């Protein structure tokens, strides 16, 4: 089955998004905004697996785990939403001394970063490099993000055991799944166990995001039952709230974000924004580490924003954190910073972040 996208519908959605972008809870940038760091999840992707009786085996020609056509479209619009949120905070021309973008080492996050930048910086004036219509311009995207949420971690013996333990189902969840696994195995035409059921749920999520209809045998509520079991409060406590896992997966990213905020406040950092293209785990674990909020798995295109503001025209900077739940979320919500008064002073935030983990990343890897 092939995917069909209605261009007029997408265009209508886009203009609805842009029309409301300035009224959201994340404030439109003004002269008090001094620095911003943004972490976003990649756009819609293909599933990690398929199964024997899957009616949509041919629905994702990009290949397993790859960014889809819809994911590209949505992250392009995400960049346009960023342009409306940040407005004249940036030059309308792409300037290397204003923004720096990093990504984890997988294709879908590289491509997502490119699409966001395309939406954020449509070529104008002399940056139009062709006599024909140009919708994009080449903007550098750098690898080497300190975010380890793509699970590609080398020379870290404790990473995989910690990840498996954090992602393992609780005893109650395992018991609740048992009758479902028998049913799923029969309908999928292959064994479904407590490990690959999470990938099956991911497959359903990706298919729904692509506008595909799940098989009749999943109705009326198989998907909802799986979600309730696999992403329960217990799971979020075990995974998001796992301090060791936080350190291993996003500890270095938090350190870099903190360093850039500190350097901006002291005048060493000249750029206006750092952007990081990452994953659902990136946002889940960083949100938990900074605010203590154990959020549900972020949807495609969700983003976490760290804003540094000049406080009442003084020399004392404050920080605010905002969470946008989806690619088209223009409102978002402000998150409190754990153990920090409101407004949270940058100096206090830096101190809290620097003392979040009792061990360095290297120490955590070998204990």
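-> sequence recovered:
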């Amino acid at each position: 089955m092939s995917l069909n996208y209605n261009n007029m519908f997408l265009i209508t959605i886009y203009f609805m998004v842009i029309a409301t972008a300035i009224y959201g809870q994340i404030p439109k940038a003004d002269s008090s905004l001094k620095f911003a760091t943004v972490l976003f999840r990649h756009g819609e992707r293909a599933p990690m697996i398929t199964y024997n009786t899957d009616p949509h085996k041919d629905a994702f020609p990009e290949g397993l785990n790859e960014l889809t056509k819809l994911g590209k479209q949505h992250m392009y619009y995400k960049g346009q939403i960023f342009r409306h949120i940040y407005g004249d905070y940036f030059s309308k021309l792409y300037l290397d001394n204003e923004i720096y973008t990093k990504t984890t080492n997988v294709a879908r996050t590289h491509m997502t970063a490119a699409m966001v930048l395309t939406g954020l910086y449509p070529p104008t004036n002399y940056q139009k490099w062709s006599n024909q219509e140009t919708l994009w311009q080449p903007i550098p995207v750098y690898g080497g993000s300190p975010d380890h949420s793509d699970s590609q971690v080398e020379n870290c013996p404790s990473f995989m055991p910690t990840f498996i333990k954090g992602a393992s189902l609780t005893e109650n969840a395992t018991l609740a799944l048992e009758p479902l696994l028998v049913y799923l195995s029969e309908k999928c035409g292959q064994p479904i166990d407590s490990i690959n059921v999470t990938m099956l749920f991911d497959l359903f999520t990706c298919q729904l995001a692509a506008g595909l209809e799940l098989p009749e045998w999943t109705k009326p509520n198989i998907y909802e039952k799986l979600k309730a079991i696999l992403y329960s409060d217990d799971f979020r406590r075990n995974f998001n709230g796992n301090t060791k896992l936080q350190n291993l997966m996003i500890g270095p990213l938090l350190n870099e974000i903190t360093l850039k905020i500190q350097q901006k406040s002291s005048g060493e950092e000249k750029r206006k924004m750092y952007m990081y293209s990452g994953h659902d785990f990136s946002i889940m674990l960083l949100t938990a580490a900074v605010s203590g909020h154990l959020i549900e798995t972020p949807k495609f295109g969700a983003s976490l924003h760290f804003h540094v503001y000049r406080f009442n025209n003084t020399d004392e900077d404050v920080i605010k954190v905002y969470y946008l739940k989806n690619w088209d979320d223009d409102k978002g919500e402000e998150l409190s910073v754990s153990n920090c008064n409101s407004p949270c002073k940058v100096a206090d935030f830096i101190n809290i972040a620097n003392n979040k983990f009792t061990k360095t990343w290297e120490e955590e890897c070998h204990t």
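The chain has one domain: 24-158+239-365.
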